[in-house]
Amino acid sequence: MSQLRLGDTAPDFEQESSAGPIRFHEYLGNSWGVLFSHPADFTPVCTTELGYTAKLADEFAKRNVKVLALSVDDTDSHTRWIDDINDTQSTKVNFPILSDKDRKVSELYDMIHPNANATLTVRSVFIIDPNKKVRLTITYPASTGRNFNEILRVIDSLQLTDSHSVATPVNWEDGDDVIIVPSLQDEAVIKQKFPKGYKAVRPYLRITPQPNK
C-alpha cells in the first residue's frame, strides 16, 4: 500500500453504501469529488461534520462537486446513524456513506495509520477533480472537527486557478485579488488575460483582481 500524492489518479473501487453499491469513478462522472472518512458510526465530532456537510448541499452543487463519506460500519448502522444526524443536526443527509467493513477503501486510500490507531480509519479528506486526479489531501486528528468552509475555499481556488494563469494568496476568499503566476511573462498576453491591470509589488509578486470564472 503506497501513499497517495497530489496528482495521482484516485483509485477506483466498488463498495456498498447507505445509497446502494457505489462504483467510485462512475459515481463522480464529470464532477469534482470530496471523499472523507470517519473512524466509526455514532461518533460525536463526525456527527456534526456530516450534518454540516448536508447543509452545504447547494454550495457543493454550485461547484459541481459530489460528496462521499466513509465509515467502517455496515449499512444498517449507517441508516440508524443518519437518523441520528438528521435529528440532532436539524438537516437531511443527502449523500452516500460508504460501508467499509472490510477496510478495502480505507487501505486503498491509506486511511488507517497504525501510529494513530491500528484498527480505525483516521479522518482524512480527498478532493478529486473531474480527471480523477487527487488535488488535495488533509488528515485530521479524531478530536478536531474538519473545516468544510476551508474545503469549499480550496475547491474555489482549484477551479479558478485551473482556468486562469493565477494562484491564490494567503487567506484568499472567492472574489479577492489573486497573483499572476511567475511563469507568465509576455506583457501582451498579460494585458489580454488581465484587462484590469496589475500591481507589481515585486517582479515575482504581481497582484490583480480576480478574473471572472
From TrEMBL:
Gene3D superfamilies: Antioxidant, Horf6, Chain A, domain2, Glutaredoxin. It holds the Pfam family AhpC-TSA. Keywords: Antioxidant, Oxidoreductase, Peroxidase, Redox-active center. GO terms for cellular component: cytosol. It comes from the Bacteria. CDD domains: PRX_1cys. GO terms for molecular function: peroxiredoxin activity. Residues 4-160 form the Thioredoxin domain. One of its GO terms (biological process) is cell redox homeostasis. SUPFAM superfamilies: Thioredoxin-like (SSF52833). It is an enzyme of class 1 (oxidoreductase). Its EC number is 1.11.1.15. The active site is at C46. Belongs to the peroxiredoxin family. AhpC/Prx1 subfamily. Belongs to the peroxiredoxin family. Prx6 subfamily. This is Alkyl hydroperoxide reductase subunit C.
